[in-house]
Amino acid sequence: MSEPLSPWGRVEAALAVLAVDPAGVKGLWLRARSSPVRDVVMQALPVAQRIHPGIDDVALFGGVDLAATLSAGQVRRSLGILSGTAPVVLTMAERCPPALAARLARWLDDRGPCLVALDEGAQAEEVLAPALADRLGLFLDLGELGYSDIGALVLPVERIAAARGRLAGVVLPAGALESLTVVASAMGIASLRAPLLAIAVARALAAWRGEAVASDDTLRHAAELTLAHRGDLPEVAEEQESAPPQPEPGEAEAQQNPQSDRIPDEILLEAVRAALPADLLARLAAGKAARAAKGSGGTGAARKGNHRGRPLPPRPGVPGSGKRIDLVATLRAAAPWQPLRRRTPDAVRLEIRTSDLRLKRYQETSDRVLIFAVDASGSSALSRLAEAKGAIELLLAQAYARRDHVALIAFRGVGAELLLPPTRSLVQAKRRLSGLPGGGGTPLAAGLRMAFDLGLQTRARGMTPTIALLTDGRGNVALDGSTNRVEAETDALRLSRLICAAAIPALVLDIANRPQAALQRMAATLGAAYVPLPRADAHRMSGVLQAALGA
């Protein structure tokens, strides 16, 4: 088995593949903050048009050129950026809204030559939209590279042209597509685009290296560039720890047959595992989980209005009740009809009708409140209450920096207590948290009921609630205050169904020494993520909370 590509070798290979066959590999997901390393890589990319997440449809697909139309007195149309054949660079790709991601995905599927998604995300949950991440064949993360790691990055034009000439004649080994598909399935990759993109990368890389038949090393390196970042880390780690199954007699003979050209799937899988560091896979997985969570993004729920926020495309309508006219969009809608509306050829008056009116729209996000429901019972205090306090304190600082509201509920003895109403005061929150006592029974149902009521109250005030439940799961006090484990579990499940029906996002963090089956059932009823942390300290616990809640 060959050695995996070095970090800088991965950069060189990805840029070479992108230069040889940009339309085949569709593009590059480049995850990098501003740095000299990123500047070097960006200079090596082909000349491209730049777009941003707030771009409108007229700039993308073309439309009426308002200034030229009004000047000439005739309809003049402009070509959109996506109408050309030049590659496109999407800056701040981690902020790309779903609507723009869908348009770019359709463009890539149709005729788009190439897209470079420049992901500048600083947090784990800030990742590229799934619709684009699924379609871009290449991925690079420059976070681990320093300026001293930069090597020679030379892509001669003559060599690129020669590689493009060889591309059509490159042949893949027998069973290459099957092997890549099996490896993708073993990594938990559900999309069928992944192995197809890996084949395109392998053919381009073989053409760049002057190979008429793609070598085993080329296939492994193509798998590193294409599949490594798409895998599901927990499943891969579990497969790596488990013993490989014994092959059937027929399979053993096939593996020992020297005439077989197919690369063993285990070799490809090991190459992909060794390609990227585990912390990168963990960060990407955390970002996927944060996007998949129901409404638990880094900000509150998005709401449409006509006064403030991020501009949205205008829509037809009649002004009134605070609705405002978008003058430019109205003129653009009216311009094509002016030749038909003018009574005389030399008329210069601009006629605007009701059907031309366009109204302004904006998207604003509501404030989010993180409702921490903390188990302060005796069983929790004996296990992990100190670590839970430390994790919440670390997360409180993050919430304060993002201007989120924080509420704190503690349940112990026979009931729950609201220690901290929704507030942005970091000092007050830390003071209440440090004074949180421990001991007594575990009224889990009472804690859920208070968190549910508080979530409904904050939602009625226009905020977006998210519940984070930290407990060891040993509920033994029912809602009526009686010590009955069966009734306590029944009450907790009933309240979990109410929270789920109200569509309040939640996270269940199991801080017991061993994962509790009852908490797993509760998380499934809540529709929430279940995270067991039997041996984590405060920093790791805080990291999991940030990733899952998008805090």
Give a description of the structure.
The chain contains 24 helices and 16 strands. The model is unreliable at 233-244, 249-260 and 289-299 (pLDDT under 50). With 551 residues, it is an alpha/beta fold. The two termini are 42 Å apart. The chain is 45% helix and 16% strand. It has three domains: 7-147 and 154-241 and 257-290, Rossmann fold; 303-365, no CATH class; 368-549, von Willebrand factor, type A domain (Rossmann fold), CATH 3.40.50. The chain has helices at 7-20, 22-25, 36-44, 57-61, 66-72, 98-110, 130-133, 157-167, 176-186, 193-208, 216-227, 233-241, 249-256, 265-275, 278-292, 327-334, 338-341, 378-383, 385-401, 426-434, 444-460, 485-501, 517-526, 538-549, and strands at residues 27-31, 49-51, 62-64, 77-79, 88-90, 115-119, 138-141, 302-305, 310-316, 358-365, 368-375, 405-412, 415-423, 464-471, 506-510, 529-532. Helix 9 (176-186) packs across helix 14, helix 15 packs across helix 24 (538-549) and helix 21 packs parallel to helix 22. The strands form four sheets. A six-stranded mixed sheet has the order 13-12-11-14-15-16, with helices on both faces. A five-stranded parallel sheet has the order 2-5-6-1-7. The chain has a three-stranded antiparallel sheet with strand order 8-10-9.
